[in-house]
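queue> pop job 88
queue> type: inverse folding (structure -> sequence)
queue> payload:
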């Protein structure tokens, strides 16, 4: 199958992603989806997704890997970052839910008006405005469906805004952190499917980000102590074999986690939630003309040397940049 490449932010090297379950996903979305739609709906439903997640992350792999060290080495996971003894990571599920010393190994920009990455992820940026060069509306999601057809207030607030799609792969650290500081205006869950977020599935017009189960958190940053970049929506999207998004906000490291709720003030860079387990996606949506993405992410997106499945599938340059949680991805424009 066609490789999928991205840009390493620190080195600017072009890397080829190891896509887990790639052949299975390709068969499922190209053959089963077209020829046996009833089976496809069952496979992407919550029960089957949860069962496959258990078999893959807690049962089958556990018996095959000697202490999971082979998986850890192949995935390039830095065990020195782990908060707990790596020997305790004796199942893939525990590896995915690991805690790291982010206050040491994921330094954060001190600029209070900066937007930081909510996750260790591969980021692709875009705009909902036809007047911008990064306009890719409805190629990755259906805007109204993403936020909810009944959420007229938020659909109007973010109309013609900009967005960042941050795709977590199974080897990544799976805590989400707050990208901005501000007060939670709304938090709601939208039920949905459990489609794969593999690049091949995305370009097959499945638009999984607006079809899958997801949690939307709307944050007002134009408040005292806030990031001053307008209203920001953070959409946490489940994926194939992801069973749960656990809200567990902590202001100090991982101590005393609490559920996120309306009216709370969230501090930028703090742990907010946890995907359990597997791969998943965060989407940040910003108001029109309130932020400017960093130059390197803008440039990397147009890299003509990287072989991106998004570029091949949509016919225009769409190359992801691998970013670290709490690293700078945008700044306020006003």
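queue> result:
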């Amino acid at each position: 199958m066609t490789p999928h490449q991205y840009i390493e932010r620190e080195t600017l090297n072009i890397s080829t992603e190891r896509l887990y379950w790639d052949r299975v996903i390709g068969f499922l979305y190209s053959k089963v989806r077209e020829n046996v739609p009833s089976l496809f709906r069952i496979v992407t439903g919550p029960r089957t997704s949860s069962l496959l997640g258990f078999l893959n992350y807690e049962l089958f792999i556990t018996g095959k890997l000697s202490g999971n060290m082979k998986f850890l080495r192949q995935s390039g996971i830095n065990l020195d970052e782990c908060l707990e003894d790596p020997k305790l990571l004796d199942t893939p599920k525990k590896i995915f839910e690991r805690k790291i010393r982010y206050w040491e190994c994921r330094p954060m920009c001190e600029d209070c008006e900066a937007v930081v990455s909510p996750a260790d992820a591969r980021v692709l940026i875009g705009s909902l405005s036809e007047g911008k060069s990064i306009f890719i509306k409805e190629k990755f999601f259906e805007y109204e469906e993403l936020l909810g057809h009944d959420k007229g207030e938020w659909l109007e607030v973010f109309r013609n805004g900009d967005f960042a799609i941050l795709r977590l792969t199974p080897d990544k650290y799976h805590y989400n952190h707050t990208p901005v500081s501000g007060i939670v205006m709304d938090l709601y869950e939208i039920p949905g499917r459990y489609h794969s977020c593999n690049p091949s599935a995305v370009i097959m017009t499945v638009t999984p980000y607006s079809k899958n189960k997801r949690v939307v958190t709307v944050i007002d940053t134009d408040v005292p102590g806030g990031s001053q970049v307008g209203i920001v929506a953070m959409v946490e999207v489940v994926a194939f074999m992801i069973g749960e998004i656990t809200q567990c906000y902590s202001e100090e490291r991982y101590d005393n986690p609490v559920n996120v709720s309306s009216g709370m003030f969230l501090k930028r860079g703090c742990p907010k939630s946890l995907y359990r387990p597997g791969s998943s996606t965060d989407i940040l949506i910003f108001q029109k003309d309130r932020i400017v993405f960093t130059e390197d992410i803008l440039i990397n997106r147009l890299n003509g040397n990287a072989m991106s499945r998004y570029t091949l599938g949509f016919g225009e340059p769409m190359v992801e940049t691998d970013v670290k949680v709490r690293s700078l991805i945008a700044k306020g424009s006003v």
